[in-house]
Every structure is written in structure tokens, then in C-alpha cells.
Specification:
disordered C terminus; BirA Bifunctional Protein, domain 2; three-stranded antiparallel beta sheet; 15 helices; alpha+beta; flat
Length: 565
């Protein structure tokens, strides 16, 4: 199989990197960085199926906690440019069963790292869809430990000796010396060793699972292959490509793959047909030009080309898998052609125009439905609140008559009807326009709204079904037409992280406004109730002496006359 992704890097403080942040990213946990006094959390990260910390025998057991481990690793590093941890991102063969991912990575880490004194923190990621891109993130400590679990220095001072074995004195009076690493983990040779050992253990697991595939971590050049390697895409690019958004890196890799296929084809032709290569090349160019002219306008030809591309993508599959995939593609393309024939769509321009009009129709239906659904929801809330107020009013009236604060609080805790009544009253206060409407009027209005929503939902469902089919067809057509506008650099869109943050801020603002509204209603009710109790207990002249903050009544001299509650 092709050379998979394999990347080793160093977490460096000089690059404003944090080992705690790296650990929080790969594990999906919320960690507190004591060095930067910040909480590190990446809630948008998905697909984390397993994480684990492997400790050597001399390491403290407390380092099994990820927050403790990496804060300790950062605390021992005092320099502004300290190396905090070693990171390794490595792919896992999809041919290995998912239940063996953790076993595979654990065995490798124990053999290559933990046995040498390193602490290994690894996490296995398998983003959606499962089994598409399984990979592992491994973080390793940079310092060794003594028998008591104390961090050792990365280097030590060694004096230089002359031929007689004596120390060399410098003109400054100091002894000539140099630094030596206490461990050789930073030696470049280990990069090759670890890559080779990872290759061996993967092939061992593939063989144990009766898989014919084998991993070779050597470059194409070292393997003696005349093939151009593709560029690593990364998670962000893969997510955009899965959504149908073409990227510069994705386009480059498609061009590289196309170039590799073309180079392979050319070499085969040269080997078999040396004498006719010129004539064949010219004929091939004519055929490609003619085919491109036809495919540029006709949707059936583009769909047929899509089937050829799919067949080429499955050339490494088994014969049964190829036949099954071809059958499924043939069925889907046949249905698409029948649908296009019904709609009278024959060219790419017709498809795009119909898609645009269908999208506008769906948007219009949704815009008409939204206010009706919102109003229906409000009516549900009003009806439910009226019911709660009616059912809980006797209990709430008892609650109002209680004079003492503690007794009142205890009564409220024992009777949830009080909270229900207050919540219902607050909701009704938010909708004063509907206070004079009867229940029958509200129900009739709601029935009318639901019937209107149902009428709009039926054509919307039809349009959405058409849009789904049309988007699938457009995706197939674009996949079969490289070099079109879709292959160019798309306009920059807002980052996913920014979109999610904007939505979160919007929801937070809505919750805040709702809470403020409820608080205002509660304070108003509390003041009015307190005023009634005070007048009942002390007379109307104490109306202006109510102190809401202290819940007491004072006279003109400032003396406390009693509690409100």
C-alpha cells in the first residue's frame, strides 16, 4: 500500500506551544495549564475512541492522571525555549479490526518507549465515518527519571581531558568542558528505528488478520518507484473535501494522482507499442479532445465517465467487491438518468439552473413556516402556563400567606407547585398581548397554524427530495469534470470554529436576556408581595420603609421593626 502519514515533532515553548494543550487536544479532555493559567479544551474535536497513559516502573503513580503528568513535565522546564514533549502522529491500517487499534499502539509504545524510561500518552482517533481515517497521537516525555520517580536533567557537564587523562585548564582559569545528553532519545537514528519498528508491527497484525496488504514506510524514491508522492492534506482539508468543497491541496493531490496514472499508462504503452507511440499519442489527444467536448455539455456522458472513475478507484478491490460496486453505481446512475429525463435536464447549465430555482423555493417555504412554528410554540407555552397557574394557585396562595422567611423557604422546597406557578406566571408576563385571549381562541389559532404548516410542509418535502437527488447528480458531474470552475480555488468561507463560536455566543445572549426577563419579573413580584405583607403587619405608613436587600422593615430612626418574610 502507499506510504501512509507518519509525523514526529517537538512541542516547544519557544513556539508558544504547550504540552498540556497538546494533551487536551488529543485526549479530548478539559485540562488546566498551570504554566499559562488557562483551561485547555477542544470541544469541537470528535472521533476520540481511546486514550491511555503508559508509565514505566519507576514513575509515580500520580502521573497516570493526564493533568498532573503534563503540568509536572512543564514545571520542571525553566527555560523560555524548553522542549516540553515529543509528538508522533501515525496512521493505523484500516484493514486491522477497530478492537485491535488500542492493542497495537499499546504494544508498540511499551516496546519502543516505556521500556526505555519514557512516559507515553496516546490517543486513538477514528473520525466520522468510522474506519475511514483511523490514526493515533502519541506524546512522550523528554526527561528520564531516577528510581524514586524524580525528573533527571536532560544534560550533564563533562570535563575535557588531554592525552594524559587530565583536565584541560583554560586561560580564564576554568576547566574546559562540554555538555552531554543524559539520554540519546533525540538522536535522529531513532526516527528511522521507530518508523521501521512501526512498519514491522503493523505488518505482523495484518498477517495475523489474514490480510494481503503490507505497509512500507520508505519513500517512493527509496522503494525505487517512479511515482510522485501526494501532499499531506490534514484534518481540515479532509473535512472540506468531504463536504464537496474543493481546496488547493485537494486539487494538487488530484492532479498528482492523475499525473501518476498518466505516467503509468505512458510507460505501459512505451513498453508494448514503441513503434506506434507517436501515432497513438496523436490519436489519443484527438479522442480526449472529442470526449471532453461531449462531456462538457451532456449529462449522460458525464455520468458514464463518473462510472468509469468509480471503476478505476476500485481496481484494487476484490472481484466480488468490484462487481457489487459496479452494480450499485449502475442502479444509481440509471435512476439519475430517468429522473433527469422526467425533469427535462440534459446539460450542466440546465442542472445548475434547476438546482438554484429549487433551492429558492425550499428557502421560501422554510421562511413561511418559521414564524408559524414559532407562534404555535408560544401558544403551547401559554396554554400549559395557564393550566399550571390554575392547578398550583391554591398552594401558591398558602405560600403567600406564610409570614416567616425560613418557613416560607421550607414550604417552597416541599411544594414544587410554587415554582411551577412562578414559572408559569413569568411566561405569561412575557406575552401580555395574549392575556385577554380565551383558550378556545388560542386553540383555534393553533389549529389554523398547524394546518398552514402542514400545507407548506408537503411541497417543501417534495422540493427537498428533488434537491437531494440533484445535489448527488451535481457531485457526480463535478467529479467527472476536472478543470472546470469547481476545480479552481473556492471563495474563502468562515472557519468552522468561528461559525460554532458565533452560534454559541448567540445562544448565550438569548439565555441571558431570558434570565434577565425572568429575574425582573421575580423581583417585581417579590417587592409587591413584600409590600403587601408589610402593610398587613405594620400598617400602611411603613410602605416606604421596606428594605428589599435586607428583607426587613425599619422605622424613621433606623431601628428594625420586623422581617418581611
Amino acid at each position: 500500500m502507499p506510504c501512509p502519514h507518519n509525523e514526529i515533532s517537538i512541542v516547544q515553548r519557544s513556539q508558544r506551544q504547550s504540552a498540556v494543550a497538546a494533551a487536551a487536544y488529543q485526549s479530548g479532555e478539559k485540562l488546566f495549564c498551570e504554566y499559562g493559567l488557562q483551561v485547555k479544551h477542544y470541544p469541537e474535536k470528535r472521533g476520540i475512541v481511546h486514550n491511555e497513559i503508559l508509565l514505566p516502573a519507576n514513575a509515580p503513580r500520580s502521573y497516570a492522571d493526564r493533568n498532573t503528568l503534563w503540568n509536572a513535565a512543564e514545571a520542571v522546564e525553566k527555560q523560555w525555549n524548553s522542549q516540553l514533549a515529543r509528538r508522533w502522529v501515525l496512521t493505523i491500517p484500516r484493514e486491522i479490526p477497530p478492537d485491535q487499534y488500542a492493542v497495537l499502539v499499546r504494544e508498540f509504545c511499551e516496546q519502543q518507549f516505556v521500556s526505555k524510561g519514557m512516559i507515553a500518552d496516546f490517543a486513538i482517533h477514528d473520525p466520522h465515518p468510522p474506519g475511514h481515517n483511523p490514526h493515533a497521537h502519541v506524546m512522550l516525555t523528554m526527561r528520564a527519571m531516577d528510581e524514586r520517580g524524580k525528573w533527571l536533567p536532560k544534560s550533564r557537564k563533562v570535563y575535557d581531558l588531554d592525552v594524559k587523562g587530565e583536565r584541560i585548564k583554560l586561560p580564564s582559569g576554568r576547566w574546559k568542558s562540554h555538555k552531554e545528553d543524559t539520554v540519546d532519545w533525540n538522536d535522529r537514528k531513532y526516527c528511522e528505528i521507530w518508523r521501521h519498528e512501526w512498519e514491522i508491527i503493523q505488518n505482523r497484525y495484518l498477517e495475523a488478520n489474514n490480510r494481503p496488504e503490507r505497509v512500507d514506510l520508505r519513500s517512493y524514491a527509496r522503494q525505487g518507484l517512479d511515482t510522485v508522492p501526494t501532499v499531506h492534506e490534514g484534518a481540515a482539508v479532509r473535512q472540506m473535501e468531504k463536504r464537496g468543497i474543493q481546496t488547493n491541496i485537494g486539487n494538487l493531490n488530484r492532479e498528482i494522482r492523475a499525473a501518476n496514472r498518466l505516467m503509468k499508462s505512458i510507460r505501459q504503452l512505451i513498453q508494448n507499442l514503441k513503434g506506434w507511440i507517436t501515432e497513438l499519442g496523436e490519436k489519443r489527444k484527438e479522442l480526449l479532445a472529442q470526449k471532453a467536448a461531449e462531456e462538457a455539455t451532456l449529462l449522460p456522458n458525464l455520468l458514464m465517465k463518473y462510472m468509469e472513475i468509480r471503476k478505476e478507484e476500485r481496481k484494487d478491490w476484490t472481484r466480488a467487491g468490484q462487481n457489487r460496486g459496479t452494480s450499485q453505481d449502475l442502479k444509481a446512475v440509471s435512476e439519475a438518468l430517468s429522473y433527469l429525463r422526467q425533469k427535462g435536464l440534459s446539460t450542466v447549465e440546465d442542472l445548475e439552473a434547476f438546482l438554484e430555482s429549487s433551492g429558492k423555493s425550499a428557502a421560501d417555504y422554510r421562511n413561511q413556516m418559521k414564524p408559524k412554528e414559532a407562534r404555535s410554540k408560544v401558544i403551547d407555552g401559554i396554554l400549559a402556563s395557564r393550566t399550571d397557574c390554575k392547578e398550583c394557585k391554591p398552594v401558591y396562595e398558602k405560600y403567600q400567606k406564610i409570614f416567616f422567611k425560613k418557613t416560607k423557604e421550607k414550604f417552597k422546597q416541599e411544594h414544587p407547585e410554587v415554582a411551577r406557578y412562578e414559572k408559569a406566571a413569568a411566561y405569561l408576563a412575557k406575552h401580555p398581548d395574549d392575556k385577554d385571549s380565551t383558550q378556545n381562541e388560542l386553540q383555534e389559532e393553533q389549529e389554523k397554524l398547524l394546518s398552514e404548516i402542514a400545507e407548506l410542509k408537503e411541497p417543501l418535502t417534495e422540493v427537498q427530495a428533488d434537491l437531494k437527488k440533484l445535489r448527488d447528480i451535481r457531485y457526480w458531474v463535478r467529479k467527472a469534470t476536472p478543470g472546470t470552475e469547481e476545480s479552481k480555488e473556492p471563495p474563502k468561507k468562515q472557519l468552522i470554529k468561528e461559525v460554532l463560536q458565533d452560534k454559541a455566543d448567540e445562544k448565550k445572549a438569548q439565555r441571558t436576556m431570558q434570565a434577565v426577563s425572568q429575574t425582573d419579573c421575580a423581583e417585581k413580584y417579590q417587592y409587591e408581595n413584600s409590600e403587601r405583607v408589610c402593610i398587613r403587619a405594620f400598617g400602611s405608613k411603613w410602605r416606604r420603609k421596606i428594605d428589599i436587600d435586607e428583607n426587613i422593615v425599619r422605622d424613621d430612626a433606623g431601628r428594625c421593626r420586623g422581617s418581611i418574610f
